[in-house]
Every structure is written in C-alpha cells, then in structure tokens.
Specification:
This protein is an all-alpha fold. 68% of the residues lie in helices and 2% in strands. It has a single domain (50-264), classed as Up-down Bundle (Glycerol uptake facilitator protein). The protein is globular, with a radius of gyration of 29 Å.
Length: 268
C-alpha cells in the first residue's frame, strides 16, 4: 500500500526529504533575527530624532537664553566701551535676537527664554509643572554662562555695566517692570498661544514689543522683563543691588498679562 501525502494547502509547503506536504516552521534564521533587531533599533533611533523630548526642550532653552544674554548684554557692554550702538541700537539688538530665537527654537521648546514667561504659561496650563523647574534652571544657567563669557571676551569694561539696577526709586522701577512685562506677556499669549492668531507673525510681534519696551523703558528701569537676564550678570558681577525688583516685577507682570489675556480671549 502506497503512502499518501497530505494535499497541499495555503499553510503547508512540500518537504522533498520527507516526500510530503508539511506545515512550515516559525523559527527564523539567525540572519533574519539579526536583521529584525537592526530594523527595530533603527526605528527606535528614528523615533528619538522625531520626538521633542524634555532634554531637547531643556537644551533649546539653555542655548536660547545664552544667546539672548550674550547678544543683548554684549550690546550694552560694547556701547559702554565704544559708544557706537547708542540706546536705539541696544534696544534693536534685544528685539532682533528675541525675534530670531522665536523662529529658531519656538517649535522645540516654545522659546520662553524667560522664567517669568514660563511661570505664566504654567499658571494657565500651557506648561506642565514637571517641566517648569527644568525650564527655569536651564534659563538661569544659560544666562549666567553668557554673562561669564562676556566678562571674559569683552575687555576694558566689566559685566557690571549690564547688571540691572533700579533707576532712582526702586519702587518706581518695580512698577515699570510690572507694566512692561505685562505688555510683553499679553503679546506673547495673544500671538503665540492663541490658535486664532497668525502664527507666522509671532517672532516679529514678540521681538518688536521687546524692542519697543527697551526703547522707552530702558532709561526708566533698565528694562529687564526677564529674571534670568538680570540674575545672570548679577551673579557674575556679585552685584545684587535691587535684584528683587527684576525678579518680582517681571514675574508679577507676566502672570497678570497671562490671566488678563485668558479673560478677554474668545474661548471655544
């Protein structure tokens, strides 16, 4: 009696050694397993580069605040030493560098580059409480590193000239800082966080209002609007005279601006 082989099916293959159709095994060859592992690692690596992680955000905030202070306070120091920029030029430097940074890292970290703005964003749920301290630490580290760098590379003038100190009565400077940071905060929340606003204008709007504030408020308070910008040079110069003005004023002004815009914006 001859041995009959099983009829072929969609899940069987013909084994020439056994002379019949058999079910295929699921065991993969070592080379196949190796290729699968390499594909998995490549996919994981690709995902790392595609995702915006907290590490990327932290690096963007540190670098962004470094550039802001290096350019802005560098402009103040160059003007003090060489008298070439004028007050208008220093204000333009701050406005232009902020505009450039918004377009450079805004899509990564939001380009806060300012602890007061980060606090205000967190207060209305636009930044998580877990990310908030990381943002603030990176901003302060970036500002301090920039001030230290300026103190090394710009000769014949000290970083002390870039330290914010109250002009006359510290309470008057405090009021000015609250008002100008309130203005900055409203613009940021209107143009950068409201989906109904034209997003392509965010850098121009934020940089423009920063330059405008610096133009008229620089002689009144020093125009900080940013605790990190004030703290960095103060730490390197060891000059903490009136520093509280440039911490309390911007923080209070930014919070007021955030909640004011939240109150007047159209909620859907």
């Amino acid at each position: 009696m001859t041995k009959q082989s099983r009829a072929p099916s969609s899940v069987t293959i013909y084994d020439h050694e056994q002379g019949q159709y058999v079910a295929p095994t699921n065991r993969a060859s070592p080379q196949t397993k190796k290729n699968d592992m390499e594909d998995l690692k490549a996919t994981e690596t690709k995902n790392i580069f595609l995702e915006v992680t907290i590490y990327k955000k932290a690096a963007a905030e540190l670098m962004g605040t470094f550039i802001l202070v290096f350019a802005g306070c560098g402009g103040i120091m160059v003007e003090e030493r060489d008298k070439v920029l004028t007050h208008l030029g220093v204000a333009a430097v701050f406005g232009l560098v902020i505009m450039a940074l918004v377009y450079t890292v805004g899509h990564i970290s939001g380009a806060h580059i300012n602890p007061a703005i980060s606090l205000a964003l967190s207060s209305v749920g636009k930044l998580s409480l877990q990310e908030l301290p990381i943002y603030i630490i990176c901003q302060i580290v970036g500002a301090t590193a920039a001030a230290a760098s300026l103190n090394l590379v710009i000769t014949k003038v000290s970083i002390n000239v870039a330290v914010n100190v109250p002009v006359g009565n510290p309470w008057a400077s405090l009021v000015v800082e609250i008002i100008i940071t309130f203005i900055l905060s409203i613009v940021i929340f209107a143009i950068a966080t409201d989906p109904k606003a034209p997003s392509e204008m965010v850098g121009i709007a934020v940089g423009g209002v920063a330059a405008c504030n610096a133009l008229f408020a620089g002689p009144l308070s020093g125009c900080s609007m940013n605790p990190a910008r004030s703290l960095g040079p103060a730490l390197i110069a060891l000059n903490f005279n009136g520093l509280w003005v440039y911490v309390l004023g911007p923080v209070f002004g930014a919070l007021c601006g955030a909640w004011f815009y939240k109150g007047i914006s159209i909620q859907e």
